[in-house]
Amino acid sequence: MSDEGVLDPTPAPLEVxxxxxxxxxxxxxAARTWRRARPWVLLxxxxxVVSVLVxxxxxxxxxxxSGSMEPTLWPGQAIVVDKLAAEFGTIxxxxxxxxxxxxxxxxxxxxxTADLVKxxxxxxxxxxxxxxxxxYVDYRPLAQPWPHEEPLEPAIGAPQSPVVVPPGQYFxxxxxxxxxxxxxxxxxxxxxxxxxxxxxxxWPLSAIGNV
Length: 211
Description:
By secondary structure, the protein is of the alpha+beta class. 29% of the residues lie in helices and 26% in strands. The protein contains 4 helices and 12 strands. The strands form 2 sheets. Strands 1, 2, 3, 4, 9, 10, 11 and 12 form an 8-stranded antiparallel β-sheet that branches. A 4-stranded antiparallel β-sheet has the order 7-6-5-8, with no helix packed on it. The longest helix is centred in the first third of the chain and has 44 residues, at 14-57. The model is unreliable at 1-8 and 45-57 (pLDDT under 50).
């Protein structure tokens, strides 16, 4: 009887099967490597996504570019800003905020700075003026328990013609009152321009603390 068309049951030598098994082994090795690496890849990806979301919606770090907030904040210090406080919270007198600078800042202060940090002095609807080194808000002296430099110049309005803060806007000043270019020069900060409230100084290590 002819054996034509009948499979030979004799096992093939290993050297014959090796080229056929190599792709399977490579796939198996790759799958094993991926199983080991997958938890780390997912962890790194999760951390990256969380970092982006936190920076976009929760907190952000800024560096102080000038001395306008001395002695509270000094050039080169790093601060952490709470963005949710501006988005959902309430802005109070005395809060230190970071906000997008208006075009008037570059024009009136010769500062090409995208973001500024100042202290809130006047809230929407309030009237403000100054006499000497005293600021009056709604015709009452404003207590300034925070560190600040005097003399207060230029002045803010006058008793007969106080500055009136428009709805939805804020009057801000730097703690270095003689040198700060602020709302006395270029006007008010709209709520929509506020990035957040300053929470802490985080750099240098010797300056770590609340603001």
